[in-house]
Amino acid sequence: MSLIALLFTEPDERARALGVWGAISGLGMAGGVVLSGLLTELLHWRWIFLVNLPVTIAVLALTPRLVERDRAPERGGGLDVPGAVLLTAGPLALVFGVLRAAHRPWDDPAVAAPVLGGFAALAAFALVERRSRRPLVPPSFFADRTRTVANAATVLLSAAFSTTFFIVTLYLQDVLGLSPLETGLSWLPFCAVLLAALLLTGKVIARVGTKGTALAGAAATAAGAGLLSRMPVGGGLWPDVLPGTIAMAAGMALGLIALQNAALHGVTERDAGIASGVQRSVDQLGGALGLAVLVGPRPPSPRGRPATSPRRWPASRRPSATRWSPSSWPPSASPSWPARPAPSNPGSAALGRPTPVGQPRAARASISTSMDGWGSSTATVVRQGRTPLGQFASTNSLYASFIAGKSSRVLR
Question: What's this model's pTM, rounded to 2 decimal places?
Fold first, then answer.
């Protein structure tokens, strides 16, 4: 991304270059969602992590041969190790504390300590950067208001995207009863629209500007999240899922590329790498915090009753997953999951078959597997039945609406 900032100095050219770069990531995402479903269906969900190992090995082996070696510029001052440690520990502690809130109240030390520690680490990071001779992120970098707002909006937009991807995957598997492979294939229309919109974003920015494109992306994302907030228990893929995901795909492409372009506003050779690193970091941080808020905080107990610990599956109903040991490698086929009641709803169909309604209010578990364009993946056991599905998608609408309001005042 820093190379794009240096090689393409004009906003229109940079937008087109960012669109091509994003399209390549979109191709990786399209292959990832299908591959993750295929691996989960035919082998085991752990393979979605193991498949990255040969890719990493190939990159490490080929990079020294294909990339010419250059000489790094002489720069004194050393590395900002304290800043790097604090910047890593702060978000990690925050995410960990929020996730712990799924099982304990907020005033529990196991929750309050990491959350307060995370904020303290971030505050200490700001102080360290002011005194460091070679700061990891110079405080003056955020003096540009356009860059600051663009990065803050990226956090919210990425949070909306990651939580929607996660909860819709659960909906497709747990409510509509699709297999992992069918779930991966169900995301292909989203990927196709995302890819097309990424390629067209440069032309849109050239016509309406960065500000107008960011607002259009936020509006489309909010509209898609609003449609997804109305997904019913007895719904179907085509009428209830695809319209919302397609709208969000167009919004994400327009919004993220416009915000990336704004995040590189006014950068020079001196701070292009910093701008790129900050933008990519807040993108990933938004996804992590969004998922943590989605699955972490426990909603208050109804009618004022004290909160209780989450119900656990009896030993007889827990899924039997393959345990890792030298004698059991490679893992066997897909783990055997206990059968659950799934009455059919004749009034709706997903992929042409009756939709299993499942257990609407019981504490049930399912494994959601997905992979994004950067090769990361999620395989998370999540309890459902505590908070309405629409509340999660409605939160994403608020994310996007907030982005639109702030962007309309600041972005140029």
Answer: 0.71
| Secondary-structure percent of the chain, ordered helix, strand, coil, rounded to 5 | 65, 5, 30
pLDDT mean over 3-31: 83
Q: Which amino acid is at 294?
A: L
Task: Check which CATH number belongs to the domain holding 256 and give it.
Answer: 1.20.1250.20
CA distance 90 to 347: 49
SS3 349: strand
Share of the chain above pLDDT 70, in %: 70
Instruction: Provide the residue range defining the domain that includes 388.
Output: 2-54+145-297+384-410
Confidence at 347, pLDDT banded by 50, 70, 90? very low
Among 20-34, 259-273, 389-403, which range has the highest average pLDDT? 259-273
Query: Domain tally for the chain?
Result: 1
Please check whether residue 7 lies inside any domain of the structure.
Answer: yes
To 10 degrees, the CA torsion angle through 81, 142, 288, 44? -70
CA angle 289, 378, 358 (to 5 degrees): 100
Domain assignment present for residue 231? The answer is yes
